[in-house]
Amino acid sequence: MNRPALIVLAVLALTGCGQGEASPQNAATRASPASTPARPAPTAADKAALLAALPAPYNAADLDNGRRAFARCRSCHTITEGGSNMTGPNLYGVFGRQAGAHPGFNYSTAMKEAAFVWDGARLDDWLENPRTFLKGTKMSFAGIPDPTDRRDVIAFLKVETGYTPPPQS
Predict the structure, then answer these.
(1) Mean pLDDT in residue range 126-135
(2) Which of 17, 72, 88, 169 would be a feasible disulfide site paired with 77, CB 3.0-4.6 Å?
(3) Which are the contacts of 166, defined by CB distance < 8 A and separation ≥ 6?
(4) Are the CB atoms for 108 and 89 separated by under 8 Å?
(5) Is 160 helix (H, G, I), strand (E, B) or coil?
(6) 27-38 per-position pLDDT tens digit
(7) Three-state SS at 98
(8) CA atoms within 13 A of residue 42's CA, in its CB half-sphere
(9) Domains plus CATH for the chain?
(10) What is the pLDDT of residue 167?
(11) What b/e readout covers 12-40, taking b as 16+ CB neighbours within 10 angstroms?
(12) CA 126: distance to chain centroid?
């Protein structure tokens, strides 16, 4: 049998068993993977509502300033859901996460052994001066000395990284 005939037979065989390009089911599977669909991006109104629901002092933050201040962090951290780890871990879902526990990131021994969960107060202390907050960390960032900038970065992260405020009692 000649080569073109073999190619045609192979394509027909694959198409018949649902493995070829012509299979609508296969095309649909490629277009939408079996993973959970991504959440829609929050609107400006959603972000404003979440900001207002944050506990003080974060509810009075300036998200634009937080975004600008966080620009210093973007060279090492991503904040999107499912985002990659870089020099630092992805920060999506950081609030409420055990320190040193983001999957797939190679933390320092000091961070792996840290016995706390990230919250606004811990992150504020960390951002003020990471090297003195936790001796032995690999993070070389000098910190954010201005308390207003730290407040705004924390509020920005809460709004952008999937934080859900606890229910009001």
Answers:
(1) 92
(2) 88
(3) none
(4) no
(5) helix
(6) 333 333 445 566
(7) strand
(8) 18
(9) 1-37 (no CATH), 44-160 (1.10.760.10)
(10) 77
(11) eeeeeeeeeeebeeeeeeeeeeeeeeeee
(12) 18
